[in-house]
Amino acid sequence: MKVAVVGVAGRMGRALVRLLDTHPILELSAAVARPGSSAVGRDAGELAGLTDTGVSIVDSLADAVQATDLVIDFSTPEATMETLRLCLADSRPVVIGTTGFTQPDLDTLNSAAGQLPIVLAPNMSVAVNLTFKLVEIAAKALGDEVDVEVIEAHHRHKVDAPSGTAVRMGEILADTLGRNLEQDAVYGRQGQTGPRERKTIGFSTIRGGEIIGEHTVMFAGAGERLELTHRAQSRDSFVEGALRAAMFVADKHEQKQVGLFDMQDVLGLR
Length: 270
Ligand code: NAD
What we know:
This protein is of the alpha/beta class. The chain has helices at 11-20, 44-47, 61-66, 77-90, 103-112, 126-142, 164-177, 181-184, 236-254, 263-266, and strands at residues 2-6, 27-32, 57-58, 70-73, 94-96, 117-120, 147-154, 185-187, 201-207, 214-220, 225-231, 259-261.
């Protein structure tokens, strides 16, 4: 099955090229970088630290989408919205790992999912998605007896905060605890904040060095505290999940099923 990778010159794009190289079913067919990128014209494998794959990096998204069975996109929200437009035009299923979408972007994604199978997940790691389930179970059991805080840490190059994964954890907490994330979220604290209100959902963000991604959900009660922590040790965990999502979305497309799916669907955790 032919796969086009959008954002191929990025950290995730290069990791995808490396793991696709040994995948038994999925095969890199097109590698798309940002127009003007110095990667254009280079071999995708060579850029990813492999020997040549024979796939040259291009900047023409339209040609790449036409020549593939499915698209995996880890780029920027603007680039992903263009990918989505072309996937709709050519009816290609798509796996989206990009984070940082605006509400209008998400509305567009939702309506595109009326015509295409799409997997959208801010974190494709299998263990992170299991953590989402554990957060839900813990919130259900502990309810309003505890204060909930989400703490995340990422590398210095990350441009959005809190991470999409942290936001998703906040959404799960809000849904499970019957709260409204828009009203109850507190993003960092400084100065005379007054005592903590139980209904708030706190977010703390750390940026530094080359931290791949760490998330903790803290349930702090009277006399005890539960922390659920996930630490990514390599980008391969995200790529493994993205390749599982690609197989899932291809299968949905073959069965002529459409919809907006996430990793809970891909992993059968729903
Ligand atoms: P990165 O900055 O290393 O890579 C993004 C790449 O996209 C860059 O090379 C950039 O030039 C390229 N790009 C920009 N516009 C483009 C265009 N029009 N066409 C093609 N390529 C274009 O970032 P990264 O660490 O690889 O992460 C990429 C995205 O994936 C971010 O939004 C990040 O938050 C997200 N991410 C998601 C997961 C997950 O599991 N879902 C995991 C890691 C990162």
